[in-house]
Write a structure and sequence with these properties.
32% of the residues lie in helices and 27% in strands. The protein has 150 residues and is α+β, with helices and mostly antiparallel strands.
Length: 150
């Protein structure tokens, strides 16, 4: 009989059969596979929405587009997932999406569609950089999105 390191968290499956031992092993394996698949069906693992990458190796994104569209994402395990989440937040209308890693990011846009973005260790530093770069390309710059992923 197997032992359980944490009593109460382990389950055993006993299947009684009059046939040979190989047939019993097949039935147990089949039953266990069914239980695992059932669990995954009830509690699906969706990595695209998993925003818990811990405090390291976290990606984020900021974006904006015409008509006031803007979006952000944070705490994704990959650059691609962070970018996709921000794009969905804009409903596909973002014309600019920038990603950042283990930091804060901000994007600013001006009155004539000029823009700037920045990333830094803090929200305020990222916003200052975004506004500074935007003001080099435009006027009346405003922060459109910011996020921290660290």
């Amino acid at each position: 009989m197997p032992t359980c390191a944490k009593p109460g968290l382990c389950a055993t499956i006993n299947i009684k059969s009059n046939s040979n031992e190989g047939h019993d092993m097949f039935k147990k394996s089949f039953l266990l596979a069914g239980v695992v698949l059932g669990f995954l069906f009830i509690f699906p693992v969706n990595q695209a929405d998993a925003r818990h990458c811990g405090y390291q190796k976290c990606w984020g994104a900021v974006g904006f587009g015409p008509g006031g569209a803007s979006a952000f994402s944070h705490s994704y395990r990959s650059k691609r997932l962070a970018w996709r989440k921000a794009n969905r937040g804009c409903r596909g209308d973002c014309t600019v999406i920038k990603t950042f890693y283990n930091s804060c990011g901000a994007i600013a846009a001006g009155s004539d569609n000029g823009w700037g973005w920045g990333y830094a260790n803090s929200k305020n530093q990222a916003i200052r950089l975004a506004l500074r770069y935007c003001q080099r390309n435009s006027y009346n710059c405003r922060v459109r999105a910011w996020a921290c992923s660290k």
